[in-house]
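BUG-356 | component: ligand-complex export | severity: low

The export step for zinc ion jobs runs without errors, but we want the raw record kept on the ticket for reference. Input record follows.
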Amino acid sequence: MDENIVETVINSVGKAGVRSIKEILIFLIPSLVRKNILNSSQPIISIRISGDGRNVSRKVKHVMITFAILNHKKVLFSPEYHYTLILYPGSEEYNTLDITTRLLREELWQLKNQGLTIGFNSPTSNYFCPWCLIKKNQHSDLDANWTISKNMNNLRNNYTFYSGHHKKPLFDMIEIENYLVDELHVMLRITDRLWSLVIYEVIESGFFDIAREVIIKEMQRIGVRFQFWQERDSNKWSYTSLMEQEKLKVLRNFNLETILEPTRAKVIRKLWDDFNDLYSALKNEYTDPIEFQSAAKAWLNYFLTPSIGNPEDSDFIKGLYRPVDITPYMHVLVWHIWEFMEKYNKWGIKSFSCSP
Ligand SMILES: [Zn+2]
């Protein structure tokens, strides 16, 4: 970039400048939508962040961090479309970067994790669904009919229109039904829950000390590197968080009979297999949306299998899980995915996944 521009920017922002990436995005998005760079079939903004130290004069050095919109391919290499986030006199030394990039890192986390684009609540809150008006305690009602019912017009005029919204949606030019769920996240998050429910059960059984070794061995057998460890000052066990392919290996191949009693293992194995089938159907562009929803409902119904009898009696049959064990992604799997399939069957929900 031209040194004069650098000087000008420094003069205008003072000695060091930090700008909010969220605010710049809010400013840029309407024009990106006008240019049709962002639209309902391309609602995801990809950003490239670059950092560089440069000598402004022989003695003065500046560090500048900029970002560019990857979707805006035509101008990707034109400096006037590189937006400055951080600029300070000095060098790219770790501690300085640590301080100057604090806001940026915080904002990137928010953008990545909190679904900040629609200014929505965290998944643990009472009103957790971006698409419908369900409350947490209505999770178990399988006769309900939750469809995409929120309307961006209402939020645009007043973001408190629906309970659970605390901020004006950043991308309020995109209609609610055009916010698609990423199929990969559906698989990752639900598999996480299925796995942690099994771990919880093993811990409850009192055999966790023995089971840890067994689990690591079984993971080895199916080709997954896996560890347990305890954080300092904590007696809670943490374990390796798995990547996509490893999670699929666990979902498909982990022999639950190594850690659970055989009948119990079979019951849970069926739940895992059925979920794996749903995930395959989700990725298949020929899947019929209505059939998908009824299969997903049947799966959730099985997930909620109640216990029969008294735990003290010999004929007691232990059920599976409780309504509070249902996660927001399970809700989306059962109630909204079929609608996305129906609306977007032209190109398949896969086009919206962040992974190829
Ligand atoms: Zn919903």
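Assignee comment: Attached the raw record above. Residues 41 and 178 are 8 Å apart (CA to CA).
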